[in-house]
Structures
1.
Amino acid sequence: MNNSENNGSQVIVVTSGKGGVGKTTTVANVSCALARMGYKVAVMDLDIGLKKLDLILGLENRVIYDIVQVIEGECTLKQALVKDKRFNHLYMLPAAQTRNKDDITPEQVKALCDEMRKDFHFIFIDCPAGIEQGFRNAISAADKAIVVTNPEVSAVRDADRIIGMLESAQFKDIKLIINRIRMDMVKSGNMLSIEDLLEHLCIELLGVVPEDKNVVVSTNKGEPIILNEKSAAAIAFNNIARRIAGEKVEIPDFSENSSFWSRIKTLFSR
Amino acid sequence: MIDFLKKIYARENSSSRDKANERLRIVLAHDRTGTSTHLIEVLKEEIIEVIKKHVEIDGTPEVTIVHEGRQSALDINIPLKGR
C-alpha cells in the first residue's frame, strides 16, 4: 500500500463497507469531472460479478473485454479499456460479470495499476461492498482512499470498520465523503449532521453531497450528474474533483435558510 | 406562547438524531476495541479484585473506554482510602 506516486499519478480507491451508499456514483461523477478539467482519468470496476460502473457511465454497450480477461492474458489492457463517449480523457476498465472476486489477486491488481500509471493522472478503483477478497484486491494498489458514507447509523458503523482496516493496511491518506445528506432533516433533528459524522469517524472531510433526485434521473439515462448544471449533487461532485486535483474549495453551508418555513423553524429551534 | 411552541418543537428535535449519535458512540467504541458491555463489567470486577488485595478502595470504581481521535484507551478510576 502507499506506493510512491510514480510520475505524479495517483491511484485512489473508493470504498464504504456498506453497499448502496453511492460509491459507484461517486467514482463515475468525480472521474468525469476530473476528465472534464483536462486530467487523464481511468476508472477500474473491481466489483467482479456485480458490475455497475459501465451502467452508471452509460457505457454498457461498448464493453468488449473485462479486467479478468486482461489479467488472464486473453486481451491487452488497451483492448479492454473503454473510452468514454463524452470525455476524451476518460477510460473505464470493466469488471467481469460471470466471474467472482477470488479470480484475481491483490498482486495482479497492483501490477495492472502500475502499468496504467504511465498513461493516467488519476486511476480510481471502484471497490465492492464488504471486507473480503474484493476489498483486499481493491486497496492493494491504492495510494489514497476515499470512504463514502451516508448520514445513517449502519453506514457510519461500516465506514468506521473500513477506516480501521485501511489504517491497519498503513493508509495515511483517508478522506471522507458524506453522500445523500438532507439538511432539512438535520435541522429538524432527524438526521446525523456533518459534524456528528466527523466526530464519530475522526477523519478529514473531502466533500458533502446533498440528496438530489436528479441523480436518479441521470442514472436512468446513463449520464453523469455533473452534466446537469442546476443539480446540487453536480456542484458537490465538481467541488470534490477540484479538491482531489489540489484546489482549495470551501465546503458550502447547505442550510436552506431561504424558504419561509425553514426561517420559521429556525426561529423555534433557537 | 412562543416558548410553548419552542418546547414542543425542541422535544421533537431531540429525538432521532441524538438517539443515533448515542447508539453510534457505544457501538463504535465496542467495534474498535473488540469489547462489549459485558466484557467491560467483567474487567471492572477483576481489576477491583486485584487492587483490593493490596489497598483499600473508597467509593465506586469506574472502568470505561475513552477515545482520542481514533485511538481508544481503557480508563480506570479507582478512588483509594486515605489514612
2.
Amino acid sequence: MQEQAEYGAGPHRDIARAAPANLLARPRTRIAPHLLLAMPAILLLAMFFIGPLLVNFQESLRLDKSYPSLGHYAKFFGDTYYLMVLGHTVLFGVGVTALCLVLGYPFAYALADAQGRWKVFLLFIVVAPLLTNVVVRSYGWMIVLGGTGLVNAVLGRLGLEPLELMYTWTAVTIAMTHVLLPFAVLSIASVLEGRDRALEEAALTLGAGPSRVFREVVFPLSLEGVVTAAILVFTLSVGSFVTVLLLGKTSTMTVAVLIYQQLMVVSNWGFGAAMGIILLALVLASLALHARLRARRA
Amino acid sequence: MRALPLWIRFYAIAMTVFILTPLAVVVIAAFNSAEYNVFPPPGFSTRWLQKAVTDPEFIGPLWNSVVLGATTTLGTAIVGVPAALLLARHSFRFKQELEAFLLSPLTLPHIVLATGMLFYVNMIGLGSNFIGLLAGHMVITLPYMLRTVYSVYAGINRDIEEASAVLGASPIRTFFQVTLPMIRPGILAGGIFAFLISFDEVPIALLLTNVTNVTLPVSILSYLIYSYDPTVAAISTVQILIVAVLLFVLDRAFGLNNLVFTSR
C-alpha cells in the first residue's frame, strides 16, 4: 500500500518500482562506453563480410529445386577433372610461394640493411609494382612473353628459336611471382629491420664467421617474417584469378579461375559458390598449419 | 655501420630489372606505331595515347575508380580509426577475439567475398549499385587501416592525452586536438593502402559493377579479354604516371620510409 502511494497506481507502478532497484544493482549487461568505438567496424563486417559468406554457403547448398543438397560438392569431389584442378591450384600456390621466398629474402635483407639513398631506391622498387594494377602488370608480362614479345625478340637477335611461353604454367608462375614478390619482400624486411643487431655483433665478436652468423642468428630471427610472407603469398596466389586468366589457358586452370568461369561465363552460380567454400577451406587449412607451426616454436 | 656485401648489391640490381621490366614494356608499347604489340616497336607514335585519353571506355571508369577509392578511404578511416583506438588503449574481455575478427578479411580470397556479395546484394535488394561496391571495398581495406593506426597509436605516450584531460579538455576536444594530430601518420599510411587496394581491386568490382559505375581495372580486363592492341598499354601508362607522381609527392612530403615501416 505504501509503495502504491509513493509511485502511484496502474501499470506505471511496476516500472517505477523496478527502476531504482536496477540503478543500484550491478547492471547485467556491462557495455562500457569505450566498447562502442568498435561498433561501426563490427557492424560493417557483420553486414558485409559475415552476411555474404553465410549467404554464399547457403547458395552452395542449393541444387536446382532441392535444398539443402550437397550436390555441388559431390560433383566437385566426384570428378577427376575438378580434383586435378584443385591439385594444380595447391601446387601452383606452393611453387609461387617458394619462388617468392627464395627470390625475395636476399632483396628483403638488402632493403633492411641498406642506408640512405640506396634504401629509398630499393623501397621505391619494391613499392612501385604494388601501385600499378594487377591487370596492368599481367598485361606487361603478356608483352614480355608473347609470341612477338620481348623475350622472343631477344632470342631472335641471338639467332635462337622463339619460345612458346604464353598460356603455359611457366608464364603464369613467372607473372604471379612478380605480382606477389613485393608482399614477400615487405613482410620479411619489416621483421629483419626490427631485429636486434647486437646479437650479430656478439656472435661476430665471439668468432663466428659471417655465414654462420647468418645461419644461426639472423635467419632464425627472421623466421617469423618468412612464415608470414609464405602464408600471405600462398593465400593470394590460390585466390587470384586475373593473372592466371590473362596469361593462361584451359590447360592452366586454377580453382579461382573456375569460379570466375562459373559466375561470368557458365552462370552456374551455385557451383561457383560451392567452389568458393572449397577455396576458403584451403586457405583456412593453410592458416591452421601456420598456427600449429607458431605454437610449436613458442 | 657495415656496408652491404657486393653480391647482394648485384642481386638487388638484377631483381630491380625483373621487377621493372613488365612495367617498362607497357610504357614502351604505349608509344608503339604498329597495330598490335610487337617488340621492338617499328616506330614511335602517340596515337594510342591520344585514343586512350579520349576513349570514354577508359576515362569514365578512371573517374569511377578515383571516386570509389576516395570514398572507400574516407569510409574506412571513419569506421577503422575508433576501433584501432579501442584496441590500442583499452583492455577488455574477448579483446584478442575482436582483433582477430576485425583483421579476418585479410585472409579471405577476394573472389569468395565477391561471390558472396553478389548473392547478398541481390538478396537484400541492393542490386549492383555503388553502396554494395563501397561496402565490399571497406571490408577488405579495414584491416590495413586498423593495423597502421594501431601501430602508430600504440607507440604514443599516453600521458599527453591524460595531461589534456587533466587540464580540462573534454574527451572530444582531446581527440581532435591531441590524439588526431599524433596518429595522423598512421591514418595517412592506412589511407594510402586503402586507396590503392580499392583502386586496383578486381573481383568485387567485376561482379558488383554495372555499365555506369565500372572501374578502371575491370574495364581494362574486359578490353584485354577481347583485344590485344596497344590502347591498353596507353591507358596503363597514364595510370602508372598518376601513381608515380603520387608516390613522388608522398615521398617528398612524408618520406616513403616512414610510411612503409610504420612500426618505428
3.
Amino acid sequence: MGTMGTTNTPILRLAEVTRVHGSDATAVRALAGVSMEVHAGELVAVMGPSGSGKSTLLNLAGGLDAPTSGQVFVEGEAIGALRGDGLARLRRRRVGFVFQDFNLIPSLTAAENVALPLELDGQRVRRARRHALAALDLVGVRELADRYPDAMSGGQQQRVAIARALVGDRKLVLADEPTGALDSHTGEDVLRVLRERCDDGAAGLLVTHEARHAAWADRVVFLRDGVVVDSTGQPATADSLLEPTA
Amino acid sequence: MSVKLGLLALLAEEPKYGARLRAEFEARTGGTWPLNVGQVYTTLSRLERDGLVEAVGEDAEGRIAYRLTSTGRSEVSRWWLEPVDRDSTPRDELVIKLALAVTVEGVDVHRVVQTQRTATLKHLQDLTRLKHRASAGDRDTGPDTDSHDTAWLLVLENLIFAAEAEVRWLDHVETRLAREASRPRRRTSGTPTDEPTDEPTNERGPGHEQGQPTTSEKDHHRTTA
C-alpha cells in the first residue's frame, strides 16, 4: 500500500480554504482555513461529526462549490479562476465522484455509464467504450459491462461508479460515504478497490464516519467545526506493529 | 486465559517440545501474544507438577517432548466447552482514564478523546494494512498455511473490531458530553421528576451545537452514536 511515492505537484491542494454560508448575523462558517494535499498514489480519509464540514470540503475539492476565501488547486491549476465551461471540463476530465447511493444512470449499461463523461467531453463512442471497458476491468467488473444498474448488486454498482470516477486519465476521485449503503463485507471490498486504484496512481479523498473504512487510507484527517483538528500523519514506516522484534 | 490453556490445546494434537510449542503458538495467533521460551518451559514444568502433562522422553538433540495426561485432556475439553470469563478480563485503562478525565477539574476531555482517537485510528490503519497483505496471499507458504492464514486473519479482524469499537465509543463520549453541556441545569431545582430525558434536538452530534448546516451532511448512519 502507498508504494507509488509522491510527486511534487499534488493532485489536490487546498490552501487556507474557508467557506462561509450566508452573511452577517446569519453567517455560518462551514470550513475555516483548511489546508491539505492529496498526492498521486495517496488515499486520504476525512472523518468528523455531522456538521464538521466534511461534505463541504469534498464539494469544494470537486468544484461543486466555491470557497469564500482560499484556493483549491487540481493538478496545480487554481480552480477558483475557472468559470462555467472551464469548471465543467474540470469535472469531466480530472475529477470523479463516488456517492453513497452510486448515482448510476438506470437506463444506461455499466459500460455506457462509465463512458458517459468521456462522451460528454467529445470523445468518439467507440473510443469512449474502449476506455470504459479498461476502467471496468481495473475494478474487477469487466464482465458486467452490458448490464444495467438494476441487475447489479450494490457492491457491483459502486465498483462501476469508481470506474466511472477514474475513467480516461482522471486522477482525482472524491468519495462521499461510498460504503454507506453497503453491508460491511461489500463495503470493505469497495474500499479495497479504491485503495488499489490509489496504489496504481490515483489520488483519493474519502469522506466517511466509519473508522474501519477510514483505516484503508494513508492518512486520516479529523475535521471539527470546519477546522482540521488532527491527522494520523504519514503511514508508519515500520512494517508491522505486531512484529516489533522482527 | 493463561498461557497454560493455550499450550494444553496444542499438546492435545500430539506431543511437542517447548520451542516448537512456542513457535506454533505464535504462528497460530499471529504473534499477538509473544511468548519467550523460558515462559513456555516454566509453564510446562508447572503443568507437569500438576499432573496435566508428562514428559515423553528426549529426542536425539536432547529436547524433551511433552504429552497430555488424561487430566490434561479433560482440562482442554472443558476449556473448549466453557465461555470465556469476562469478569476476569483486565480492566481497560482508557475507560478509567476517561472516567477520571470527566470528573477531575481542569482536564481537557476533548483533547484526551481526540488524542486517543488519532492513536486508535493509526493502530487501525496498521491492522488494515496487515489484513490487506494477509488476504492478498503474499505470505510465506508452507504446510498448514491455509488454516494458519485463516487463524491469523481472524486474530487481525478481532483487533480491528476492537479498535473500531473504541473509536465508536470515543465518538459517543463526545456526543454525550456535548449533550450534557447543552442541557439546561435542571438538577439544581431538586425535583427528581426533572431528571432529564434525551432531547431530540441534540441527537445528531456535537457539531450542531455550533449551528452548522446539516443539509450537506449525510450522517444518518450516526444514529448509533
